[in-house]
Amino acid sequence: MVNENPYHLIGSFDGPDETPYQGGHFQVDIQVPDNYPFQPLKMKFITRVYHPNISSQTGLICLDILGKEWSPVLTLKSTLISLQSLLCSPAPDDPQDAVVAKVYTTDRKKFESTARLWTQGIYKEGESSNLSPVAAAGLGQEDVDKFTSMGFSESQVIDVLSVLDYRGPNIQNLSDDAVVDQLIA
């Protein structure tokens, strides 16, 4: 319970095996509506997740059972299990995060490596790291600074540069304009 409120909960589950989320621990903010179970639970990820059906910025979730497909027979436990299953089976045709969905459909290796990096590195829940978020993402501080000096937040720049794989020789293949386009998208 959050602040002794039985209608505001924090749920958690481990990342599914044999996925980029394996080894991760994910927390979910849960709001229970007054007329539950006749209305769906309101859920969003607290832990940052790189996934087509989860907003990388807000944690909002695109999952049919949290909306029009809700049924009063669904429980808190079954809904959390459905979230865990969503990590196994992304639905890029109905995305919450279009940028991540595009990477998922066009470059699966990049998607998996970025999702793994978020799970094991920069956004790993429950562990502190001596690495800065920039270093944990495998990015250069000067590269991040170039875009934060334009007024973008560091976390937004890290997210976009990670999605674009702005590392090593690949930096030469990406113009600053292409990065800015993604930052303002």
From TrEMBL:
Active-site residues annotated for this sequence: C62 (glycyl thioester intermediate)
Domain UBC core: residue ranges: 1-124
Highest taxon of the lineage: Eukaryota
Keyword Transferase in annotation: yes
One of the record's GO molecular function terms: ATP binding
Keyword annotations: ATP-binding, Nucleotide-binding, Transferase, Ubl conjugation pathway
Protein family according to the UniProt entry: Belongs to the ubiquitin-conjugating enzyme family.
Name assigned to this protein: UBC core domain-containing protein
Record organism: Wallemia ichthyophaga
